[in-house]
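If it is no trouble, can you show me the amino acids of a protein and the tokens describing how it folds?
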Amino acid sequence: MVGDGAFGVAEGRGGEGLGEGEAFFVPLGGERYAASEWTQGPWSAEQQHGGPPSALLAGRMARLALRPELVPARLTVEFLGPVPVGVVGVAVRVVRDGRSVQLVEGELSVDGRVCLSARLWRVRAAKVAGLPSGAVVAPGAPGAVPGGVQGPLGRFGYGRAMDWRFVSGSFAVPGPAVAWVRCGRPLVAGEGGMGALERVVLVADSGSGIGAALDWREFVWPNVDLSLHFVRMPVAEWVCVDSVTQVGDAGVGVARTRLFDEAGLFGSVAQSLFVASVPGA
């Protein structure tokens, strides 16, 4: 999640201006996109949650120089500054296009200021005889868990945009937690359903919130990066986020997340955090 304001600023905006059919972004042409209020993050009503702009950038990167034999292996996103809820621009390029590996870079900017930079490694995928399956069973199934917006999730656009199903823990109570998450709305208006990489990235940046170690009323903990590693892409719309956060007394933390779909474990996430007190808390 990007931003440096205090949690609670988004309260009071409610659902005003948030239509149920809206996408996170509306294309304006020339790789420029207008962010809707569904992109709002928890720290400020004027700043986006890290998931939507990261997913937008990852999706544009995934479409560049696409080769069917290559699959995503690692995506890193660096948050260089808050992303306003407004117009963003995206630029992507191929850095290396080898026979077995490919590296793509991208940037998301606002008014000429780069807010996010990212790198995507894709590697050749082919069956290798003798390798173990490495299958790890998913923690439950989303259909068996009641839905509902918990605690502060209802106070900002992104929190309301997603379907949350907690297997254990709670967004409102500090500590490790496991939740199934999906999104029924499009990332970009007019593009229909999301690709697998977009779908995962949209959810993955929530790990530091789902498995938060601190109370939202007392602290903020924006992440400065998002690093995903994959053994495969998910095969369905639900993504399970199994997250835990560790914070040191110097105000530096790390959120670690395991990613599942209903077929089992498919990847992991790490986020570096900096922690600050909410003014007046």
